[in-house]
Amino acid sequence: MANKEEMEAACISLFMGIGLEETVAKNATRNAKFSKTLEEVIHEAGAASGCPKAKGNLLYTVASKFPANALCHRPMLLGYIMCEHMKSNAQLDGAFEYLRKVGTTEVDKKMLEEASGVGVVITPEQIKAAVTEEVEANKDKLLAERYRVNMNVLLGGVTRKLKWADGAAVRSTLEAAVEALLGPKTEADLAPPEPKKKAKTVTPPAVVKEEKLVESAQAAAEGPATPAQPDDPYSFLPKPDVNNGVHTTVNFSDGRIMRIANTPEALAAHLARMGGKVVTRFPPEPNGYLHIGHAKAMFVDFGMARQYNGVCYLRYDDTNPEAEKLEYIQHIEEIASWMGWEPWKITYSSDYFQQLYELAVQLIKSGHAYVCHQTKEEIEASREKREPSPWRDRPIEENLRLFEDMRRGLVDEGKATLRMKMDHKNENFNMFDLIAYRIKFVPHPHAGDKWCIYPSYDYTHCLVDSLEDITHSLCTLEFETRRASYYWLLEVLDLYKPVVWEYSRLNVTNNVMSKRKLNKLVMGGYVNGWDDPRLLTLAGLRRRGVPSTAINAFCRDIGITRNENIIHMHRLEHFIRAELDATSPRALAVLRPLKLVITNMPEDHFEEVEAKTFPGRDNSESYKVPLTRVVYIEATDFRLKDEKDYYGLAPGKSVMLRYAYPVTCTSYTQDPATGEVTELAVTYDAEHYTAGRKPPKGVLNWVSQPAPGQEPPKFEARLYEALFKSEDPGSMENWLEDLNPDSLVKLSGCVMTPQLASAKAGDRFQFERLGYFAVDPESTPGALVFNRTVTLKESKPVSLKK
């Protein structure tokens, strides 16, 4: 601890030695990265023993703003400062702009000096003339507002005319000119300005009421409020033509620093090949079904390409021949299309196996790879101790011969790997001589039996990104520590380098997202396949009735930030409801039927009432609903005892049958054994509309016999709740014990109106008062199954854990 304090005190002393205020010096030490940079700058400038404050301020600016892609030229720029050829921040800004374009290539000193105003002399006469012109242009404003005018605005006007003028000289000349015009400051000039009072407007109560009614009507017409979305959620990412900044800095255990960036030539060649387009890729591994986290990845990858009229690859990351299946490949392509994304090209990492092999040979020849015989366990042990492989310094020719033996199948599986010679002592374990190739005597689903050596993900991913000229390699945060190895490999092979940017994974409450856990749920029989509607797999969401447009709207809403958190399920449900409310026709159905006999209606009575597919909308179509003497309502809509704020049916109470007539309960029948109500007797008000009577408050969904004595069509309803009781089951050791036993409720004997009987798999409806439902693919003619997609109203997020 004392050592750390001593080092911090030494840094503060060093920083104050160049004229920084103590507070600024202390703040600089709090940022370890900046503190180290400033320390390097001071030593490079030869100012460790101190320097004038003016120079010190410029050194601070260099540490803060020097272009990262041109660090090799920093000592030269510091020489200009220390020799007083550059004296202002304006000059430094000009130099930075030039060096940013040059990068690591050779500097033309004449162009640098022109860009930064070196040798340009601005005389006091020139400054005075420019100040006089600026004061004259603002004379009326100065006379009216006097010293309350923002002098920095005037100062900016002068410096725009005299870019390389000394700032202090300009300011003092301006202040003198203003005082000559206005005279010395008076007491009124020195007094603080009076706060501006906001004028109060009084709105008559009647107008207020009318405005609120208008706002309410507008809100009802517009539907659920959705947060305003930015037009371009990708705007923070660099454009392809500026992709020559430093992508990363790799710090080696021996003190070396590798600052990795595209050279101007490499960037120019890339831009020529791709026409300056944004090029992204969606690279799933075909070893399982995609889930909602992949929907976010597709929104990021395909969405960015679409935003900028670029292109996006669908690339199967198929480096492991034992995990890939044709079933998964076909599913991924089909589900990406369902989500609304169209790939520019569909490729496989295995398409590049030959090129990857040739690059591995090049890596060996340059001394950056070696054949190793350590087992997996031995590699892990030496990694923990940061000890090198015994074969790390094997001769290049021997490595080439052994790698060729591996390729020809002359080495047994598990007896050798090709490892990258990176930095076995590095603090970042992803720089610990990662495996590039391993032996597997397994045919590849796409490449066939040509290969018995297969490249690793760490070796393949960055190389294929480069070979496909990807501009933006976007991935989730768990890959952030791999950034160093990603760029190290591209650098030592002298290949084009994409921009890498990581964003947070998508986790949703009461669900698991890892493929391993999803595989356990499916293969263990805890759910009914990869498309079980309780899962947040895209196949499961589709089967449940969720539109892809709602998923994409949800992904846009949560954004592509780096903030790791768990998103509440109700947030996804909000976008599902908004989409289904706009697109799902209304229909009448009853989930838990209770028989209701209209006693004052003839037994052979039949009529059709008119219902609306989209009630309250101008473009709503009508459909006919049969009404006969026997009607079914929800069993939950009847109580033996009426209560306040209860709008269902009770003895002696009236309710409205939706689109039909008011009915009044006159009696009921109970099961003598259980006491359960089995039938209701009601009367209906046939003259309700002609008499113009006020309807009752309660309105019920109902289904009638389609003809006297003929039962309505029946269906099965499946009601889904959260799959897990806890919000974050993935963090639990015994996560399977957290499964919610009530996550699926099947209701048989539900009844529907006749027009619903012709519904096809995938059709979506709003069952009035019940929720949004979709026809399940397991449905057959005469035996429909409806999945409840989501309830009508948003419930508060709660944990089911007791």
TrEMBL record:
GO molecular function: ATP binding; glutamine-tRNA ligase activity
Alphabetized UniProt keyword annotations: Aminoacyl-tRNA synthetase, ATP-binding, Ligase, Nucleotide-binding, Protein biosynthesis
Domain tRNA synthetases class I (E and Q) anti-codon binding positions: 699-776
The Glutamyl/glutaminyl-tRNA synthetase class Ib anti-codon binding domain, residue ranges: 584-685
RNA-binding is among the record's keywords: no
Residue ranges constituting the Glutaminyl-tRNA synthetase class Ib non-specific RNA-binding domain according to the UniProt record: 11-167
Gene Ontology CC: cytosol
Region listing for Disordered, in residue ranges: 186-205
A Pfam family of this chain: tRNA-synt_1c_C2
Signal sequence range: none
Family per record: Belongs to the class-I aminoacyl-tRNA synthetase family.
Identification of the protein by name: glutamine--tRNA ligase
